[in-house]
Design brief:
- This protein has 144 residues and is of the alpha+beta class.
- It has a single domain, classed as Sufe protein. Chain: A.
- Helices cover 50% and strands 19% of the residues.
- The chain has a three-stranded antiparallel β-sheet, with helices on one face.
- Helix 1 crosses helix 2 and helix 2 crosses helix 5.
């Protein structure tokens, strides 16, 4: 399977999978993110207990890239300490901005989300890919 097919398959798989698309019962942090250029809307809810993201999910609608990116983010960050999660968000944003290009580091740090590295070549899709990540960052910092 070539990288293009793998990319498409992972995006479609995460877009269809609804396990991360739900409300968080008893959330402690909540933020709504909106991408006016394409209409994507995401609400990220997180439950933080003792500095750990014990639960994390999103609701909303948007293109397959925004939805898949949000799902990958939840898979990657749920259960991590908030500080580690925020550092990981910065790595993801750095990857999309082409500030971090070390493929091995990105794969190790971002796991499946590293497959979105190619989005940096599609300026119209960058905001789609980073929406959930920025929204989580704002949610956690707003109440931190």
């Amino acid at each position: 399977m070539d990288l293009g097919n793998l990319y498409t398959e992972v995006i479609l798989e995460h877009n269809k999978d609804t396990r991360n698309r739900r409300e968080v019962e008893g959330y402690t942090h909540k933020e709504r993110g909106h991408n006016p250029s394409c209409g994507d809307e995401i609400t990220v809810e997180a439950k933080v207990e003792d500095g750990i993201l014990t639960d994390l999910a999103y609701t909303g609608h948007g293109c397959s890239i925004s939805q898949a990116s949000a799902s990958m983010m939840v898979d990657l960050l749920k259960g991590k300490p908030v500080e580690e999660a925020l550092a990981t968000v910065e790595v993801f944003l750095g990857m999309i901005k082409r500030e971090i290009t070390d493929v091995d580091f990105l794969e190790e740090t971002l796991d499946e989300a590293s497959i979105l590295q190619g989005i940096s070549n599609l300026p119209a899709r960058v905001k789609c890919a980073v929406l959930a990540w920025h929204t989580l960052k704002e949610a956690v910092k707003a109440k931190a």
